[in-house]
Design a protein that fits this description.
Radius of gyration: 29 Å
CATH superfamily of the domain at 377-547: Reverse transcriptase/Diguanylate cyclase domain
CATH class of the domain at 377-547: Alpha Beta
Largest sheet: 6 strands, mixed
Oligomer: single chain
Helix content: over 70%
Strand content: 5-15%
Length: 548
């Protein structure tokens, strides 16, 4: 507020410090969602810092603008600002400001997918902070390292770095730093399929950080907590929490955060059966991700162009500028003649894109089971046909798991068909957690599901099926806090090398399922024999299943 009080600021030696405050204030305007006001402030400050004697305040303005551009999806322009700012601050000997700039540059490299460069910078920054005994800086850089390990899916390294950041923040009594670390651990635990543990850390993070102290981080933590609530079977609370931060997230225009928000909201809405709203949120997230991915692809070449020796290439740069100016003049001359053509072409392209998008939406709807969101019978069997064809070609194996809910009619008769639908949705979520990345789970109809496991032999199929069976048996549907609904599944498995048609493989799996039902249910039976031979093998883990 003090920085913005005077139009021109103080003269003399105090002026650079006033301009630094103005740069900081512009960054805070972005954090508060006042994006247009912040952009205006950036442009005004760049004019006021044109004097070469003010190169450090000017670099700080470009630093704040670069952070905003990078977060809002202007990746190339954001990188230009950040690289220029870091170069000036390093040359001027402003070490603390240079480290701040490198911290934000590491975050930018993470956004564009250059995780190795992000790790290199963050390790360098953390080592420097340790050497200076700068505990606060060390906690921040440890948190950044943890985030990058998280992107690399190196969960143990990520959790260790988050724990390090938390310990340092606790030592300082820094509640904000503790909140950042707790939310980071919650996010990692979510990706590790441990929603209840994640929820505990997310709750702690929300208690530590006030919404007014750090609005952007509070919103990020709200998204993580909402994901944990939805995965823990509390989608209604997740939607309510996301609704409370909706307006601020959309105003700020931070595209990665907005994408995470839309995906979390889609997950919670789908768990509530609000499919049209869930589809719109997921579609928005996919559009954002596609736009960012395109920028990342083109950014690699742009980054190479920016890594040059300025003194050595000064003459080449001047030539490029002249050519650019000539190109701009040529474009201005052509603009009037091409305007009508561009408008007409734009209308045609928009129409064509709309038709393509409509066709894709219809195709997705035609291949998706409305109740569970899984691939439907037709899509699942088509995937099986493809898997068998690949198995024949590659001389590999394919396994199928036929999964059926035990006593499903009793569930419907006792709790009602609405609860039966909830059981099927719960089953779809839990079964998906037991699959490998390339496996496919679909609903055949009623309470019967099919999992297709490309490249899986008998032992792999048995292991996946046992994980599924144990997960369902140990994860009851929480109808309410006092009314958990426990249920089990029986699974019939069969393996083939692609020599038989899909119908024969499914018949073997169905026979194994029939034997699992006859063996007392809550059982896995593997039909390892080829078609036309003896009955399936004995149930896997039958003794433990009978005891249950």
């Amino acid at each position: 507020a003090a920085a913005g009080a005077a139009a021109d600021g103080p003269p003399g030696a105090a002026r650079p410090w006033w301009l630094r405050l103005r740069a900081c204030r512009a960054g805070m305007l972005v954090e508060l969602g006042q994006v247009e006001a912040a952009r205006t402030e950036f442009e005004v400050l760049l004019v006021q810092t044109a004097d070469p004697a003010l190169e450090v305040p000017r670099a700080l303005v470009r630093l704040e603008r670069g952070v905003h551009r990078s977060r809002s999806g202007e990746l190339q322009r954001g990188q230009v600002d950040l690289l220029a700012a870091c170069e000036v601050l390093g040359r001027a000997g402003a070490d603390a400001d240079r480290d701040l700039c490198r911290w934000h540059l590491a975050g930018h490299y993470k956004r564009i997918g250059d995780l190795d460069e992000s790790l290199r910078l963050l390790k360098l920054l953390r080592a420097g902070a340790r050497a200076r005994d700068a505990t606060y800086d060390e906690s921040i850089f440890a948190y950044g390292l943890a985030q990058t390990y998280q992107e690399l899916r190196q969960w143990d390294d990520a959790q260790a770095a988050f724990r390090e950041a938390l310990d340092l923040s606790e030592k300082l009594g820094d509640r904000a730093g503790m909140a950042y670390a707790e939310s980071g651990m919650a996010k990692s635990l979510l990706r590790m399929k441990r929603p209840r543990d994640a929820l505990a850390h997310a709750d702690t993070a929300m208690k530590l950080l006030d919404a007014g102290a750090d609005p952007r981080q509070y919103e990020v933590q709200a998204i993580i907590r909402a994901e944990a609530l939805a995965d823990a079977g509390r989608p209604g609370e997740a939607v309510a929490l996301l609704d409370s931060v909706d307006r601020r997230i959309r105003l700020r225009g931070d595209l990665p955060t907005l994408s995470s928000y839309s995906r979390a909201r889609a997950t919670a809405l789908s768990a509530l059966g609000r499919w049209p709203e869930a589809y719109r949120e997921l579609d928005q997230a996919q559009q954002i991700d596609q736009g960012l991915a395109q920028q990342r692809q083109s950014d690699q070449s742009a980054r190479l162009r920016q890594q040059f020796n300025r003194d050595r290439d000064e003459e080449d740069l001047a030539t490029l500028r002249r050519l650019h100016e000539q190109e701009l003049r040529l474009r201005q001359t052509q603009a009037v003649a091409l305007a009508l053509f561009v408008v007409l072409l734009g209308v045609l392209v928009a129409f064509a894109v709309r038709k393509v998008m409509q066709a894709r939406r219809l195709q997705r709807l035609a291949s998706t089971d409305e109740l569970t969101g899984l691939p439907n019978r037709r899509a699942t069997l088509a995937f099986l046909d493809d898997a068998l064809a690949r198995a024949r070609r590659d001389r590999a194996e394919v396994a199928v798991l036929m999964i059926d809910v035990d006593h499903f009619k009793r569930i419907n008769d006792t709790w009602g068909h609405a609860t039966g639908d909830d059981v099927l949705r719960h089953l779809a979520r839990v079964l998906g957690g037991g699959l490998r990345d390339r496996d496919r789970l679909g609903r055949l109809g009623g309470e019967e599901f099919l999992a297709v496991l490309p490249g899986a032999g008998a032992e792999v199929a048995r292991g996946v099926a046992e994980r599924m069976r144990a997960s369902i048996a140990g994860t009851p549907l929480l109808r309410s806090a006092t009314q958990p609904i426990a249920y089990t599944v029986s699974i019939g498995a069969a393996v083939d090398d692609g020599s038989q048609p899909a119908g024969a493989l499914l018949a073997r799996a169905d026979a194994a399922l029939y034997q699992a039902k006859g063996a007392g249910r809550n059982t896995v039976v593997l039909h390892a024999a080829p078609a036309g031979t003896d009955a399936p093998t004995a149930p896997a883990g039958a003794a433990s299943a009978e005891a249950a």
